[in-house]
Every structure is written in C-alpha cells, then in structure tokens.
Amino acid sequence: MRTLYAAMRDRLRCYASDESEPGGMSHASTRLEGHRIECLAASRAAPERVFVGTFEDGLYRTRGQATEPGEREFERLETDFVSEAVTALAVSPRDPNVVYAGTEPSRVYRSADGGDTWTHLEGLTDLPSADEWAFPPRPHTHHVRWLEVDPFDPDRLYVGIEAGAFVLSPDGGETWRDRPEGSRRDNHTLATHGDREGRIYTAAGDGYAVSDDGGDSWRRPQDGLGHTYCWGLAVDPADPDAVIVSSASGARTAHTAERADSHVYRRLGDEPWERLEGRGLPTGKGVVRAVFETTDANGVVYALHNRGLFRSEDFGDSWDAIDTGWGEGLEAQAPCGLVALSD
Fold first, then answer.
1. Is-contact 300 313, C-beta < 8 A?
2. Which 8-state DSSP code applies to residue 183?
3. Which CDD domains match (predicted)?
4. Nearest Cα residue to 188 out of 78, 290, 76, 67
C-alpha cells in the first residue's frame, strides 16, 4: 500500500493507493482544509511523519498513528520563524530527524529532532545578490521556494530563492555561496539523484539547468523545450539522465486555471526535449503546471495538477488517472506539492 499526499492550494488530499492495479485507490481523505498550503515534505525512512508548510499559519506535522491509510491528523508546531509563511521544506535523505524549512521573507531554519526545535541558519540575506531578490506578485519581499539536501553530502544544502538566486551551503549553513556560474535566478524545483554524485537539476522560471559538480557550475540544455517557464521536475530513479519537467510560456499561463496553458516535456540522455502529448496526462489549455513525485520503483512517476492525480510506470510514455473523485473546487487550483510514501 502506498500513501500519497497531494497538496492543493487550500487543502491536503491524502490517498491510499493500491498499486496492483493502474489507478487503484482504496481510501481518500482531506486534511488542513481552508489553510493556504505552500509546501510539504517527508522521508521514506520515516513515513509516519509528514510536514506541511502554510502561508498564514506556520508549520504542521502529523501526529499519532493512522486509523486508516492516509488518515493521520496534523498538529501545528510552535516555531520562532521570522514569519508564519513557510514556503519550502526538506528532510535529509541521510537522517529523517534533520529537517529544513524556508520562509517568506527568505530565511532558512534547521531542526535536528524531527521538527521539535529549530535553529536559524544565518547569513543568507547578507549575500551580495540579496538586494536584488524580489517576488513579482509581492515585489517588496521574496521567499525560499525550494530546499534540497545533497544525498552524498548531508551538509551540502541547495536553496532556490524566488526570485533572485540559486545559493548553496557546503557546510550545513555555516557559509553560503551566491549565484554560482551559470545558475538560474528563478528556481522553482531542485532535484538530486542517488546514483549520480554531484548532479543537481533545476526547473526555473528562466529555464532548465543541470550541474555535475554540486552546483558550482551549470549547463543549460534547452533544445526542444518549447515552453521555458519551468516548474515541476522529476528524475527517473533508474536513470539520472531521464528528466521530466512541467512548463508554460510564462507565469501568467502556468498557475491560474482560467488562463492556463501548460505542458510536460521529457529529456532522455543528450536527446532534445520531447513534449509529451496524448499519453493520458492532460496538458494544454486549462491545465496548470504539474508537480511530480517518484518512488523507489524504476520508471514510476506521479503527476498532480488541477485535472487530477496521474501515474506512469514507464516514465511518461503512458499515464493512468488515479480515481480520486476530483471535485470542481480543485479544478481551479494549482498544486503545491506531492509526496508518495510506503506504509
């Protein structure tokens, strides 16, 4: 049994998925309804603990045992963050007790006890580029959009600022490196791969990029990528050179259903990007940018957007809808995150 946590803008949908049948699902529930959800994170090493960041009410974490798959309750954590807007979360792949949180305005915090206590990692906003950071809908401020911990070096932390910079820390937040050569400015999703040391990927508002030296320098393979405002990103667990992204022509057609026109592209090795159409995953007019999640299974990837939750077993060649009883209210929302865990 696999539990899927799908974060939409005003609620968290929780699904128990029977993977013996395509689209199989035995149970669904809703949590944190009415909250403005920004992000979520969990560790496969500790699937009982899921973190959710909200914009107006801080950080939440699961508590107690599940009465049914996906039926865990959430409790609000007391923190001393700079604001209640928790915009990014990450759990260390080496130690599920090590959790990172990012906020608006841009700050990064670290917990070594599973979220009970937090330490501010100082110095981020002292970087030279910080005066240029600004989030266009709220240009007086900015936020941490993504946090990623290196699977080979747990002290190496990657941070995407929306909008303004990719920064990294080689030493757990003691020092920061600002805007490495070739890095993107408007990073939305970062990813690493457990079989490729030094590899990091970004889906950014100013395009896709990939690094092979832990973020110190970047390449920008764009051939075939017809829509370069990138948002979601996933890498095949079996192949660090197989990548899927969601993208649009710009922010205007990415996030709002009434004017959305988003697409999904896949890149295999050094081949040009291929737009995935007619594969069972809705794209195009009325479809907001998708977010993705992989599992430990080779080729398996989930996609979430305003038309529902979908699963592919061949890394995007074909997709099956997971029967979630998708409501009309969800068709107007953009997703904020997706986590797949085995119970």
1. yes
2. -
3. Sialidase_non-viral (cd15482)
4. 290
Calculate the CA 63 to chain-centre distance. Answer: 22
Q: What are the pLDDT digits (tens) for 163-193?
A: 999 999 999 999 999 999 999 999 999 999 9
* Closest listed residue to residue 290, CA positions, set 311, 313, 314: 311
- Predicted confidence at residue 129, as pLDDT, reads 97
Question: What are 319's two structure tokens?
Answer: 């997709």
Task: Express as a percent the part of the chain with pLDDT over 90.
Answer: 88
Tokens describing residue 253: 């057609």
Span 227-267, pLDDT tens digits: 999 999 999 999 999 999 999 999 999 999 999 999 999 99
Q: What are phi and psi of 258, to 5 degrees?
A: -65, -20
Where is pLDDT greater, at 110 or 63?
110
Place of tokens 């599992």: 295
- Top CATH class, 2-342: mainly beta
Q: Quote the pLDDT of residue 68.
A: 62
Please list the helix, strand and coil fractions of the chain in percent, rounded to the nearest 5, in that order.
5, 45, 50
C-alpha 294/C-alpha 312 separation (Å) is: 10
Cis-peptide, bond into residue 66, ω within 30° of zero: no
- Report the SS3 class of residue 249: coil
Question: Where exactly are the structural domains of the chain?
Answer: 2-342
Which pair of tokens denotes residue 121? 């990692």
